[in-house]
Amino acid sequence: MNNNRIASIIEKKLQVVAGQEQDLYVIGPVVLPVELDGETVVFQWYSWMSKDKNEEQLSSAEDLVKQLSRFRYADLQQSSVLVYGDFQGDAEALIRMHSICHTGDIFGSERCDCGFQLKQSMRMIAEHGAGALFYLANHEGRGIGLFSKAMAYLLQEEGLDTVDANLELGFPDDSRDYSEAIAVLRMLRSAPVALITNNPRKVEALKHAGMTISRRVPLWGKASIYNEKYLNTKVGRSGHYEAEQNTVLQS
Asked: By the number of CB atoms within 10 A of the CB, which of 50, 95, 173, 226 ranks highest?
């Protein structure tokens, strides 16, 4: 298959979201059947990458294909979104802004509740009938990266909590940025959304960007002796809504 043929296929599924400093190149939707609780649930998958305005721009799908042979896209972290149902047209679609957690999402680590939150939010979206799960690649360890997260874990084993471990390494408590995900959300849907989260920073990020949140849906569970301190730190030091607030809150 030649480059022109590849480009003709890709350009039907390529959109560019222009930004002030960066442009986002969004590819999709791609049909993605997912095994969820023993059943196959079909999502529509999108992925995106960003490029600074001062870098070589990809003005067409053909430009993108030409770069594949000389640029290692695998060296860059890229984010994704799984879309389910009539996301654009549904009266109230659920969304989840999920930060990548290599240890929790892939290995099933019980030092956090990330793996549970990932699967549970997918269940909630599928049961609701329409929604989107954003999987954010640059958010490992609240934005410090996987290697630094490993160092933070060692500090936690010496008694520091998740906040102090990040601070001790010279990082902010939370350096995650949601601007790219919000830009892709705007591309996919303009109507209000229901946000699955316990984190008020995510609520504020969407509100600050001008998005309307119809309600907040809490997501607590999978507590154990291994993550008790982690969960308490989320509430006590990072300001997360408490587990007892197990009702839908108007925002």
From this structure: 95
